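With this grant's support, we have settled on a layout for protein records. An illustrative entry appears below exactly as we store it:
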Amino acid sequence: MYIKGKIKKDKKTKNLTKRLKSGDIAMICHKDLDEIAATSLVEKKIRCVINTEKTISGRYPNRGPTILSEAGIPIFESIDTEVFDLIKEGKIVEIKDNKLICDDKVIGDCQLLDDKAIENQLSIGYENLEKELDLFIENTLDYAKKEKGLVTGKVPIPDIKTKMSGRHALIVVRGKDYKRDLQAIQAYINEVHPVLIGVDGGGDALLEFGYTPDIVIGDMDSISDRCLKMSKEIIVHAYTNGKAPGLERVEELGLEAIIFPSPGTSEDIALLLAYANNADLIVAVGTHNNMIDFLEKGRSGMASTFLVRMKVGSKLVDAKGVNKLYKSHFKLKYVIGLGLAALIPILVITMMFPPMQELMQLIKIRLKIMFGI
């Protein structure tokens, strides 16, 4: 296989996808490529992926490689991890006979991860799933003891300007199928006008659909500057000791932010925020709520999610997969029916027009003569 193109690289795939253009070669450093990252790469219509980590380690059955393969995007794995630093971004590179070439020099070797290799690694992942599940449960229970303050009220909720009492709150996370689910509930958003809360990149998802976030919340590592500037209120997720790495970025943009120190994930504290501010209903789009989601996110347990959902469950509606509930199909009979219905008033008005009545009388007389009536 021979491939040639401009290389774009980043050790964080979510940062790289912002710079990719159609036809680029994406160089990543992403162990166990997850579904969300793979889908983002596919959307950019790249030529191929070069990964300096194991795309499938066999620890669990991650779907990312399958998504790339189904989209016809080849995946190459580099044996030499130093390759990542040897090639500058923007360089034209070639892949020929499993050799990575730049400026007519062989930089290193790379191996194509074909469908058979993906299938083999996935089967190992499924075999290891029971072991991972045991570890996952143990970690979840262990951390649940430490994070129980999330439901006992020991985590202080910051005061915010946005009024939620008696209103619906829509919390958007960039999780699986978030675009399709967000599209499916647009009628709800336009009719109910819920408080719009974007969790990190979820804020950009709202902008993409034409909505301005009322609140963005998170550690600010995957949200655009544009979204931060447009959002009405910014809440930075901080560690329990009060340290908030994301605050520096917000302040560099000359913006104000509220600090929310808490254990757990940013989507967890977004749910807590809406609940504590007496939202009448909380609708969640794209949130992570199962083991594979959390393993792909790099978390070994879901203690905070488990605890938070126990607390807010009476008000929570999870919109994950709502796009699959109903799929509209174009039916010709409906169009014909509408057409006939539209013709009826036209015919009635036409028949009431005097010249048309005279014409109908002439036609009637002509028919009588023809048939001898």
Summary: The CA atoms of residues 17 and 41 lie 6 Å apart. The longest strand covers residues 2-10.
